[in-house]
């Protein structure tokens, strides 16, 4: 197993740890930051999420730079991303930090695009992610990280940056999904 695939696998392995950090009420204390209370376990989960998100960029970079792209990586990388983001968004609903309807739209888009990719793969067609998809991923990761940190450091200013980023992520999620389907709809007509 090459380095990019090991990084992707490590991201998948970190997901249950991330979930446990946010699901179990660890009594590790909390920080009072302005009007915000940030539990230490949420801070640790946010750091873990940021680290896992960074491995997504690193494994892609190394796979492309050193020509280490494999079928296993093509399967595991998007799966790891969707599992990590979905777990984080669902936990943010439970924590009262994200509206359920936003999360439903984001996760639904991921299922729809994955379905289109599966149809294409069945026809031997590889559908690459576009620039809007990369913007979507970046805005989702930023929104989730800031929300996991209970809007720190923006809570000092009383500015709801995490919530605003979540809505920006929603916008790019929908836009990139529509764009992806428009550009690749021909795949649906090519089925045998």
Low-confidence stretches: none
Secondary-structure element sequence? Answer: HEEHHHHHH
The main sheet comes to: 2 strands, antiparallel
Shape: globular
Q: Span between N and C termini?
A: 35 Å
Sequence of strands across the biggest β-sheet: 1-2
The CATH superfamily is known as CDP-alcohol phosphotransferase transmembrane (TM) domain
The domain count comes to 1
Strand portion, in percent? under 5%
- How many DSSP E strands? 2
CATH topology: Four Helix Bundle (Hemerythrin (Met), subunit A)
Binned, the helix content reads: over 70%
Radius of gyration: 18 Å
Q: Write the CATH architecture name.
A: Up-down Bundle
Q: Which secondary-structure class do the elements indicate?
A: mainly alpha
Describe the protein:
The chain contains seven helices and two strands. It is mainly alpha-helical. The protein has one domain (3-189): Four Helix Bundle (Hemerythrin (Met), subunit A). The protein has a two-stranded antiparallel ribbon with strand order 1-2. The longest helix is centred in the N-terminal third of the chain and has 26 residues, at 40-65. The two termini are 35 Å apart.
